[in-house]
Write a structure and sequence with these properties.
Layout lengths: L2 H13 L6 H7 L5 H18 L3 E6 L2 E6 L4 H7 L9 H13 L2 E2 H8 L4 H9 L3 E6 L7 E5 L1 H6 L11 H8 L28
Antiparallel strand pairs: 1-2, 3-5, 4-5
């Protein structure tokens, strides 16, 4: 592996504000062969996974990014106070519909949820989790919504194919086999004589 090329790629990813795609890296390093770049990326990924350090190189949102290991989150939060994004149940439901049904219109989202979703979609747009993909070619030309690159980054997804399937989601609610057991039959409680029933000496 070309160690200089690996070092250059490493520095590009390290200084990037967002996940850097392979295409973008190849564009920036047009003096190198694409195969060499993809080989160097694979090598870097393996090295960081194998070293077990505080951060790793991950493929997320269609690109490459350095991220701290999730196992160390509690320690990092002592040092960096991050504002966690809080979502209402309705916002999460709307975001899930957009993620799994995209491209989708507001009317289609509202049909599935059964309530008005205009305010929630606006909020998701402001948080950059949802984006407008265009207009649907039907009367009224309604806006079409889809998830953004930021959505993939926040949820740590490589691409939309990485979204959990319905079967995987349902499996989260399933009781593990080792927890499924018949209720133990206990022996009837032993009866002890009360004071009035004690034999007199």
């Amino acid at each position: 592996m070309n160690s200089e090329l690996s070092a250059i790629i490493e520095s590009l990813i390290f200084t990037a504000e967002a996940a850097l795609s392979t295409d973008r890296i190849c564009e920036l390093l047009n003096e190198f062969d694409r195969n060499d770049i993809t080989y160097a990326l694979a090598g870097l990924h393996t090295d960081y996974q194998g070293r077990g350090g505080g951060f790793e190189l991950v493929e997320v949102a269609g690109g490459w990014q350095f991220r701290t290991r999730p196992a160390f989150h509690s320690y990092i939060s002592r040092h960096i106070k991050t504002r966690t994004a809080k979502f209402s149940q309705s916002a999460l439901e709307t975001l899930a519909i957009v993620a799994y049904r995209q491209p989708v219109t507001r009317v289609e989202v509202e049909h599935l949820r059964g309530v008005d979703c205009g305010g929630i979609l606006k909020s998701l747009l402001e948080k950059h989790l949802v984006r407008i993909l265009g207009k649907k070619d039907i009367p009224g030309r309604p806006l079409i919504y889809g998830t953004s690159k930021e959505f993939l980054e926040i949820f740590g997804l490589k691409d939309l194919k990485s979204l959990p399937t319905l079967r995987e989601i349902q499996a989260l609610d399933a009781v593990p086999q080792y927890e499924r057991q018949e209720e133990l039959q206990l022996e009837p409680e032993l009866s002890f004589p009360v004071e009035g029933q004690l034999p007199l000496e």
